[in-house]
Here is the input.
Amino acid sequence: MEEKSIKTEKEVVVREDLNDMVRSINFRTISNRFGERHVVDVTLYNGKVLEFKDDKKLFEICMSFKDIGETDFIKSKKLVEELNVNEDGEIMGTYICVRYELCDSTKVVLFATDSFSTRKILDNYYKHYKELKKTDLKK
Here is the structure.
């Protein structure tokens, strides 16, 4: 019989302050001979940029708001860590994403282009960012 790895809520730590190390979150258009595609770049405190894929066509949704004269259609955008819960309600771990909330209360979640390496990179920079903040507080 195969054992499943199920974590309890106490074992899983969700970093609520992940967005604190973000300098900016912006769309970028990539053009090639096949056309254009859009990604979301997350620029961190140290200038490093991580790419999140716009597979939900969020850029096009935003352009539709712009086309009808809507302004301030993006209510919020954040780099967040959230619980990964399976269909049985069991906590399987966490995931990191960019979460947009639009003016009509629509929430759109975008994931990293390469989720494994992005997760490791963010873990490293988060640890460094926290160390820098500790050092700043001591001064």
Confidence is low (pLDDT under 50) at residues 1-6. The two ends are 56 Å apart (CA to CA). Residues 115-138 form the longest helix (24 residues).
